[in-house]
From TrEMBL:
The species this protein was found in: Nonomuraea soli
GO molecular function, one term: transmembrane transporter activity
Taxonomic path: Bacteria, Bacillati, Actinomycetota, Actinomycetes, Streptosporangiales
Transmembrane segments: none
A Pfam family: ABC_tran
CDD domains referenced in this protein's UniProt entry, alphabetically: ABC_MJ0796_LolCDE_FtsE (cd03255)
Protein name: Putative ABC transport system ATP-binding protein
Domain annotation ABC transporter: ranges: 2-238
GO CC field: membrane protein complex; plasma membrane
Superkingdom of the source species: Bacteria
Keywords for this protein: ATP-binding, Nucleotide-binding, Transport
């Protein structure tokens, strides 16, 4: 479904070139849940931004469903994100002067979903993420963790074939992390593909596969057999 070939990113703005991603090859099958891990500065965010068209590559190719996408224009990417790809990234990018409810419904409405269906989907997602009572708030009135969950709800509103997420549990306490993990498990079981940058072992344990980066290269790429992990003094069955 998603393929990167010889992908390179060199940041050159500060004068000294930074080789953030160095000739990376990655192939992700439809329905896989892939966690991208690695130490700070290893290139995880850069990689996922390139995969979602938020940051241009220096060289290499990105293919989505058999079509080359690294050559797409901004508007081409915007269309793709609306139709196929949900993206949760750091900074959240919520529309400040719209309510939480409208932020979550907007992508579905833009994609042509009926207002009734968009509202039902929004209600379901906000409920699953314990955000129903914040539906009429504006993003500026929310905590960082609430904004993060709204961004996840918005990314899932269109049931995207591919969900890309950068640290979706980064700001969350354990209860909210558990809500997010449950929802991700559901999304995965429903057949959607998930590619997620995370430092969180609980998220990684839910994934089928962990890709580890170091200095912009893949140093490990393996499937995880574990389905149960210990968290905060208890064993959580994540499936
Ligand atoms: N806009 C930028 N300009 C210059 N260098 C950058 C830029 N963004 C990232 N880098 C550099 O590229 C490298 C990879 O950064 P990236 O943010 O992808 O790492 P990461 O693995 O996501 O780190 P973290 O876990 O801390 O978020 C780092 O050396 C970083 O300093």
């Amino acid at each position: 479904m998603l393929k990167a070939h010889n992908l390179v990113k060199i940041y050159a703005a500060s004068g000294v070139p930074v080789h953030a991603v160095r000739g990376l090859d990655l192939e992700i099958e439809a329905g896989e849940f892939v966690a991208i891990m690695g130490p700070s500065g290893s290139g995880k965010s850069t990689l996922i931004h390139m995969l979602g068209g938020l940051d241009p590559r220096t060289s290499g190719e990105i293919w989505l469903d058999g079509k080359r996408v690294d050559t797409l224009s901004e508007s081409g990417w915007a269309l793709l994100r609306r139709k196929k790809v949900g993206f949760v990234f750091q900074g959240f990018n919520l529309v400040a002067n719209m309510t939480v409810a409208d932020n979550v419904e907007l992508p579905a409405l833009l994609a042509g979903t009926s207002p009734r269906e968009a509202r039902e989907r929004r209600e379901q997602l906000l409920d699953k993420l314990s955000l129903s009572d914040r539906a009429e708030a504006s993003p500026g009135q929310l905590s960082g963790g609430e904004q993060q969950r709204v961004a996840l709800a918005r990314a899932l509103a269109n049931r995207p074939a591919l969900l890309l997420a950068d640290e979706p549990t980064g700001n969350l306490d354990s209860r909210n992390t558990r809500d997010v993990l449950r929802l991700l498990g559901e999304v995965h079981r429903g057949g959607q593909t998930i590619v997620m940058v995370t430092h969180d072992a609980r998220v990684a344990a839910l994934a089928d596969r962990v890709v580890s980066l170091l200095d912009g290269e893949i140093v490990d790429d393996g499937r995880i057999p574990r389905r149960k992990i210990a968290g905060a003094g208890e064993v959580i069955d994540l499936r």
